[in-house]
Q: What sequence folds into this?
C-alpha cells in the first residue's frame, strides 16, 4: 500500500495540535499504511509511540542547522516497507478521498507523481475523527480499496 513520511516541529501549543490531528488522520487512512516521522523534535518520539509508527530521530542538517530534505527523502526510500512512498507536510489532514485518488492514479499508470493543494483552515483543538450518524468513517472509506 503506502508509506507516508514527514518531519515535524516540536509538538507544543498550536503546532502540536495541528500536527497530532494530521498524523491521526494519516493513521486512519488504511490499516496497512506505514508512517515514518523524522527528527528529534520535542514530543515526536512520544506521538510516534502513541500512534504506533516508527520514529527516526537522526536527520542530517546543513551548516545552519536546517534539516536536509534530501537526506529525509533518501532515508524514507530506504526504510519504506510499501511500494508507494509519499512525503506530506506535517500539518496536512488527509481526508478519506486521499486513498481513493491514490488508487485511481496507481491503477492508471505504475509511474506517477501526485502533487496536492492545501486548504488553509483555522483548527485550534483536537479533531474527533469518529463519524456522526449516517457518515462513513475514514476507516470505512479506506477499506473500500
A:
Amino acid at each position: 500500500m503506502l508509506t507516508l513520511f514527514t518531519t515535524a516541529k516540536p509538538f507544543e501549543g498550536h503546532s502540536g495540535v495541528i500536527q497530532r490531528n494530521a498524523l491521526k488522520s494519516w493513521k486512519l487512512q488504511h490499516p496497512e499504511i506505514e508512517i515514518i516521522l523524522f527528527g528529534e523534535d520535542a514530543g515526536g518520539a512520544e506521538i510516534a509511540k502513541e500512534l504506533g509508527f516508527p520514529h527516526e530521530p537522526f536527520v542530517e542538517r546543513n551548516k545552519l542547522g536546517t534539516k536536509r530534505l534530501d537526506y529525509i527523502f533518501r532515508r524514507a526510500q530506504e526504510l519504506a516497507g510499501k511500494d508507494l512512498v509519499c512525503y506530506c507536510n506535517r500539518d496536512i489532514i488527509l481526508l478519506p478521498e486521499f486513498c481513493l485518488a491514490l488508487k485511481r492514479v496507481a491503477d492508471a499508470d505504475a509511474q506517477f507523481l501526485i502533487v496536492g493543494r492545501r486548504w488553509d483552515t483555522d483548527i485550534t483543538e483536537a479533531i474527533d475523527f469518529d463519524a456522526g450518524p449516517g457518515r462513513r468513517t475514514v476507516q470505512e472509506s479506506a477499506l473500500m480499496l
